[in-house]
Design goal:
With about 350 residues, the chain is of the alpha+beta class. The protein has seven helices and 19 strands. The protein is globular, with a radius of gyration of 28 Å. The N terminus is likely disordered.
Amino acid sequence: MIKRVNLVDYMEQKDFYEILRKYRLGQASPEEEKMIDDWYEAMGKQPGETTDMPDEEKERRYWENISVHVNRSGSRGERHLPRYAIVVAASVCIAIVALFYLYTRESAQRTLAVGKDQVVEAGKIIRSTGDSMDQFTLPDGSRVTLSPHSSIRFPEHFNLPAREIYLEGEGFFEVVPDEKSPFLVHANDMTTKVLGTSFKVRAFQGDNKVTVAVRTGRVSVFRSHVSHNEKAVILTANQQVVYDRKEEKLYRQLVEAPQPLLPPAEIDRMHFEEAPLNDIFHALEKIYGVDIVFDETIFSSCTLTTSISGNDLYRRLDIICSAIGATYTLEENRIIVRGKGCD
């Protein structure tokens, strides 16, 4: 007697989950598509079916369909499903529900990565709800992109003597320059002051750390409600400050992924043929606006043939340091290169 084997019986839940993901993206093989279609049919659910019902109701119906399918197969007068088949059915249900949420979340991120720009009035509290980022234009023309579950509020008199924003959560600000009216963002004991620049502030209520990261321009960051004699931290592009609320200390750093400050076409033209290491490091400093500290005497005999385009800053440094037998470390907002030089 030939035993018919179901592929799902012999696969791990994570494998089935991967096939489901490929099915949703249109990347599944014909055999994989047939398998998913069979399981959807067994569940009484069409793959392309969509409704406007809430997510909770969709999840309930997924579970209900699987439960009915399993119970009917095991009822009196019909053939019992083996125990392993019931376990597989439950596992597949979990995978399908998980994939449903993954798919809908990925779909939302693709189509709603930044919500529709909204012009807001002064004296309002603005909140970003759901799982997408929302973009708002402030009364002065500045823009803020709020991460999910974040909010800002600002007074009715927004322009003078300063443009003050109170942030809870995370927001990316693109500030319209106005020398007469500094732009202030207050967030969890920290204040960021700018005239015109772009930067991100992360300050969720339950977090121990507050982070201010600068994309372009220059900002001044200081602790709120402290003596004015305390020196503010000045940040420029690709720098950030992290405030530890427990230690009450500010730490200046480079951002995790520095972004180029020059146009791509200009970077692509930077190709070095047996060039001194000094020239290459200076080019990287110009591209990313960072300080690279090294002993020019020790590395004076080092020359390299390389291009600067491609890879991020740290990957490029990995390649250069590997070629000359050096290492680098990050110390506050500087990159320190150490080594024995090139003999």
